[in-house]
Hints:
Blueprint: H1 7-16, H2 23-31, H3 39-56, H4 66-75, H5 86-95, H6 106-110, H7 113-116
Amino acid sequence: MSKILTKKSSELLLNRSPYWMAPELMMVSMKKATNPNIAMAVDIWSLGCTVIEMLTGKPPWSEFSGHQAMFKALHRSPDIPKTLSPEGHDFLEQCFRRNPVERPSAAELLTHAFVEKKTLDP
């Protein structure tokens, strides 16, 4: 997803993956413009959506149509599962920061307590 979008690829993206799509990517796609500065932040948002899907078995807003899911993402962040640990909750909050510039990098997330947390062997 982090490549610069062409008009054709952005239209394809809107039709295939709205459940994982960052709001700023939707805005770029709707304006038919490209912005290479959002590339990494878009992937971090999608990572957060993937974590939610791994935890719940379905992507955020999966109960809605693709267009409805896009509208939701444009206006709010996905709900974070209440059963998630405090570290996991913080990890996802960072992935879903509304301002893409404020999202951590993948390298920063690799040092997050949620990723580094070790489980005890039985």
